[in-house]
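tool=predict chain=A
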Amino acid sequence: MSEPSSSAAPHLRRLLDLLADNAPAEALGAVSSQARAAGVAAGDLAEVERATATALRIRGALRQHRRRELQLTALFDTAGDLAASRDLDEVLKAIVRRARMLLGTDTAYLTLPDEEAGDTYMRVTDGSVSPLFQGLRLELGHGLGGLVAQTASPYATPDYRTDERFHHTGNINAGVLDEGLVAILGVPLLLGSSRGGAGKVIGVLFAADRAPRVFSPDEVALLCSLAAHAAIAIDTARALDDTRSALDELAERNVELAEANAAVRAQSAAMRRAEESHDRLTDLVLRGRDVKDVAAAVAGLLDSPLTIHDPGGRPLAAVGPDGADFAADSMDAGWLAETAEESRTGARAVRRDGRWICAVLAGRELLAGLVLHRREELDDTDRRLFERAAVVTGLLLLLRRTVAETENRIRGELITDLLTEADRDPAGLTERGRRLGIDLDRPQLLLVAEGGVRERLAPAAMRYLFGGDIRGVSAEHAGNVVLLVEAEGTAVSAGGVARAAAAQLGQLTQAPVTVAAAGPVRGARELASAYGEAARCLRAMRVLGRTGEGACVTELGFLGVVLGNAQDVDGFVGATLGPLLEYDAQRGTHLVQTLDAYFGAGGSLIRAKDELHVHVNTVVQRLDRVQVLLGRDWNEPGRALELQLALRLHRLMEGR
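tool=predict ok
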């Protein structure tokens, strides 16, 4: 017999079925409403309502147990993942990823302290989209994380921006705002915690949402459990790293023991090689050999080409490893000086642009630079050998300079006699020069130099002659320095030699040096006359403000005609009026005549056209052509004076 519809039993069975099917709370709550609608008696209806409340409690407890079971399963899985991982980076990423998954938050992240910097930095993030947030560094004690680290306790905030329990800073607020975070939960990563002690905080683990959220005690406990696993995993990973480092160090020590014996044998061989090299270089000095011999010896020992350059960059010696000549161009003097200064400061050879350079010094003075053309690294033994070669080269250069200075002083006396007593015994002076290695019958250039620091100029002139491929002699005379330079085979003019000498002497004295040149000439009398011309040229350069330059009288325009011994009038007229004379000869024009009339008329176009019997426009057109040929400055006072003198001399030459 079926139960009446007004009975409570069907509704009670319905509650049990719904519980078994894990129905939602709404379905359970609807059973009492259905019983009431079915006309269940008041006493039975109260029993159904009590049963419904009990069923809802049972459902909540079952859900809580299931959630705990899922969380425990996740924690066990996390512990397994962390135990299996040996790489610290992988451990940290796994911690943060599992924290975000377990709590279902938008993002999770982990901060670790920086012992050296004294702050905390963002180590790993998961779900973050802001580079500013990912690169945050936090002062100790600042922000929610600082509060967690200081108290070793978890903290949660439903709205970070309005929470005043911790210290807000501009950079932290900016990072949190850029990431869009609102609700944040942070728990400490503790090591060594026990009953009665908080342990050591080694980091902080966070879970955060971009919307307001209240974290439940279960969620806080869950994240704390994960943090406890994480702290142990981090400590284990660090311990493994320390163990690996210790094992690697032990292995290295075993290797070092084996290498030490090899190093001792190599050092012994290197010492023998160094002794042999030292003996070889010392023998070169004792036998009075030249710097080229040093270059050849070192190039052979180091199996690389070696060049020796003077302070101006010019090569003094260039030898290949086989002893043959090595093609070497001049080096940039500035680059060589800069690199040599670095070598001098560090007292070691330096490596630049695939070459090894070592300064050759006498005190602070740069005598030369040794350049080893070798890209490979030099070991300590070869480097010391290279540096020792620089010392030997310096000694040889100083010996060579001492000899050269002595010879130069003796020869310098000949210059003094040539300039003061040339007429007394020219034949005797020529013979005396020949005995000293100076052939006065060969073309010679005579240079007179002034400027710089006076006590530095004479030694600089000697080094100028000694350091290059110039054959000559120098001496002090009448307050200046006079240089006698062999001119045979010289491809440049006297002015070119003067300019080169001015530049080099200026560099050696570190001050402007003015040089005047005369010649080439032969014989004692002509040399004395050339000195007078060079001295006059030097005075003219001083008046013209050409300090620090080099020149000869032919380069001084009309002053050269006045001051020069040869008085080359034809050359002066040709150099000054040449373009006009050539133009008139080729085209049958009258530019020279027009220019002469213009100057003769005091610069008046009207008077000039009357003198020439042409229209004024013709005069203007001709003068325009003069400007094209001579330049825009033809009517400037200094240039106009030279042109007028040349025109006068031209008229005299036409009438002779």
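Residues 1-5 have pLDDT under 50 and may be disordered. The two ends are 167 Å apart (CA to CA).
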